[in-house]
Amino acid sequence: MAKLKLTITMSLDGYVAGLPPSLENPLGEGGSGLHDWAFATRTFRSMHGLEGGETGLDDEHAARGTANVGATIMGRNMFGPVRGPWGEEPWRGWWGDEPPFGTPMFVLTHHARESLATDGGTTFHFVTDGVEAAFERALEAAGGKDVAVGGGAKTAQQYLRAGLVDELKIHVVPLFLGGGSRLFENLDGGPTGYELARLASSSAVAHSSFVRAAGG
Amino acid sequence: MAKLKLTITMSLDGYVAGLPPSLENPLGEGGSGLHDWAFATRTFRSMHGLEGGETGLDDEHAARGTANVGATIMGRNMFGPVRGPWGEEPWRGWWGDEPPFGTPMFVLTHHARESLATDGGTTFHFVTDGVEAAFERALEAAGGKDVAVGGGAKTAQQYLRAGLVDELKIHVVPLFLGGGSRLFENLDGGPTGYELARLASSSAVAHSSFVRAAGG
After folding, report:
1. Which residues of chain B make contact with A202, given a CB cutoff of 8 A?
2. pLDDT value at B28 more than 70
3. Is pLDDT above 90 for A208?
4. Which chain A residues have a beta carbon less than 8 Å from that of B179?
5. Average pLDDT of chain A, as a whole number
6. Is the peptide bond before A191 cis (omega within 30 degrees of 0)?
7. Phi-psi category of residue A65: left, alpha or beta, with phi > 0 → left and psi -120 to 50 → alpha
8. pLDDT score for B151
9. H or E element in which residue B57 lies
10. What is the mean pLDDT of residues B48-76?
């Protein structure tokens, strides 16, 4: 049966994104270091049409993050930095003309917008009626494959609170952001009902995987 | 040169102690599971006069936590559950008549009290003039060895904010407490000035070690 998988990378001090960008730190304070481990893998480089990259544990985890995924849900802040109405020449995502996903993407937003087809097979759909509706549409679009939720923190929290997450993968990077978007808050005492499937680390990142507990 | 080492175990959702004890959960919600990894090690069992226990990575890290430690600082909540003045028959610690430490212990408190000598060589000193004074006294008592800070969260935060921590070891246990004492808050955008010395995990706990960054 198709599953909802939440996969997210967090700093050791609990943030999935750094402090907001500033003139001094256009990428936000230290936030880019969160994803160095993924960028280094063969799986990530191959997704972006690049050769080489590391194999081994981190690459296995990067590959599992995309394996059998038929559709992906993300919050609007992961799609782009634009706030409010989309405007006349709307933002088309961080990923250029040919986003690397190749699957339907569902973007949670308060502002309706036509679906956006791009080269390479990735289509972005904009969902204004909440996380459950987005999940139902993504599940249908995935055609029997799994649905991934990528983040950010608020989107992850909404799916956890709604009890919709079947598998939870947290990649913890040993660095301190000192502020930003905290993953584990606004969860009403949760997450509950999960059991550890696996913990393993490279020298760069610790991967924890959880599944729904038996009877949970 | 003697160092100040902060060593603490944290849940994946960022807590070093669970929610307060209740009638339903005398040990606090799930908090005891944080230390199962340590209890299982040969080092911990040996400290408590028990045979056996696991060797391997977690045991190495448990051993490093106590190696070359000449004195330990802890917050009052780690010493006991009693609040306010100590009273006529004051609390003597969680550890019975023969605490396993064998080194001077410095307890941060707002309420003055005579030092408490116990069998087995452990003496508890009660420090009312703040974290820097406690460090100075512990350093002197350690006789050239290192000083350990054990917790809880507020004590750890005070030492981090004061810039006194030379080595930072965080053991992250893949469980969710859902609430309690959060380690990484009230740190004024820190910790800053550390670099990763080592990340490694068993299937039970991920160990991260940081040292002061060069020039930091």
Report:
1. 199
2. no
3. yes
4. 189
5. 91
6. yes
7. alpha
8. 85
9. helix B57-66
10. 93
Quote the CA–CA distance of B120 and B93 in Å, as a whole number: 14
Residues in chain B closer than 8 A to A29 (CB atoms): 189
Q: Which amino acid is at A67?
A: A
CATH, domain A4-19+31-85+98-212, list 3.30.160.70, 3.40.430.10, 3.40.50.1110, 3.10.20.70: 3.40.430.10
CA distance A7 to chain B (A): 14
Q: List chain B residues with CB under 8 Å of A191.
A: 13, 176, 178
State residue B119's pLDDT score: 85
Could you give the ipTM of this predicted complex?
Answer: 0.92
Q: What is the CA radius of gyration of chain B?
A: 17
Q: Across residues A62-88, what is the average pLDDT?
A: 89
| Chain centroid offset of residue A166 CA | 15
d(CA B98, CA B117): 10
Of the pLDDT bands very low, low, confident and very high (cuts 50, 70, 90), residue B201 is very high
Residue to mutate among B19, B184, B195, B211, with most A CBs inside 10 A, is B184
Q: Which of B12, B199, B203 sits opposite A204 (nearest CB)?
A: B199
Ordered by start, the domain boundaries in chain A are 4-19+31-85+98-212
pTM of the entire structure? 0.93
pLDDT digits (tens, 9 = 90+) for A16-36: 988 766 555 555 566 668 999
Domain B4-17+31-81+99-212: which CATH class?
Answer: alpha beta
Contact between residue B100 and residue B133 where contact means Cβ atoms under 8 Å apart: no
Distance CA B176, CA B10 (A): 10
Give mean pLDDT, residues B102-127. Answer: 93
